[in-house]
Write a structure and sequence with these properties.
The chain is an alpha/beta fold. It has one domain: ABC-type transport auxiliary lipoprotein component (Rossmann fold), CATH 3.40.50. It is built from ten helices and six strands. Strands 1, 2, 3, 4, 5 and 6 form a six-stranded mixed beta sheet that branches.
Length: 225
């Protein structure tokens, strides 16, 4: 009986892990514009927010939404006394959105942005938490957490000593100057567009016909008029 119970629990785990997101609130709100506010940084890398923020506008714009220029947004918020990202995230969405006239607001928290040296290899980790809220009601329309990992590949030369030297050099170079931006872009792509067979955020009203056709082909619904 215990074995049968354990088997039943294990059988349910994959189904629970892949439950589709409920996007009914998002589709009902039908936002046309999304305000990207400064990023809360929980990592030790002080430059992480600026690097990450540069990767967000393009994928959201390509998804069919009007995106406010992030540098202009940052300047306006500073003029309003909201120079710290935590202050922005803790302020009422209606207050922040009212400064720009946006329909929705995107909050991102950097939970991990690090390069760790492990056994002649450097592992670069990026973990991000996203949330889009309605500017009128303050309700969360969509949220997602995405983690990405990169470790440089080392091709064997047939010389064990030479391979160790190459591995050590590659690890040192990656540790000294880890390139987080490609990982951040990949994370954004998965978060906003979804993986094959999975939905990201719905298409915005400015999505191209080609995007609509691709969405229909992959089972992603176009926005409702």
């Amino acid at each position: 009986m215990k074995r049968l119970f354990l088997f039943a629990i294990l059988a349910l785990l994959p189904a629970c892990a892949h439950q589709p997101k409920d996007l009914s609130k998002f589709e009902a709100a039908k936002p046309a514009s999304i305000l990207i506010v400064p990023v809360v940084n929980q990592s030790v890398e002080v430059t992480a927010p600026d690097y990450f923020l540069s990767t967000v506008p393009v994928p959201l714009g390509e998804r069919g939404y009007y995106v406010f220029p992030v540098n202009l947004v940052k300047r306006v918020l500073e003029d309003e006394g909201l120079s710290d990202a935590n202050l922005v995230h803790n302020a009422a969405p209606q207050k922040v959105c009212g400064l720009f006239g946006s329909d929705a607001i995107l909050y991102v928290t950097i939970k991990e942005w690090s390069a760790k040296y492990l056994l002649l290899s450097t592992v670069v980790d990026v973990r991000l938490a996203y949330a889009i809220k309605d500017c009128k009601t303050g309700e969360t329309l969509w949220d997602h957490e995405q983690a990405m990992t990169y470790s440089p590949q080392n091709n064997s030369t047939g010389n064990p000593l030479g391979d160790l030297i190459v591995m050590a050099v590659n690890a040192a170079v990656t540790k000294a100057a880890p390139n987080y931006v490609p990982l951040a872009r990949q994370a954004n792509n998965i978060a906003f567009n979804g993986r094959p067979g999975e939905r990201g955020i719905p298409f915005g009203p400015y999505a191209s016909q080609e995007q609509m056709a691709e969405g229909a082909r992959t089972g992603i619904r176009a926005p409702k008029n």
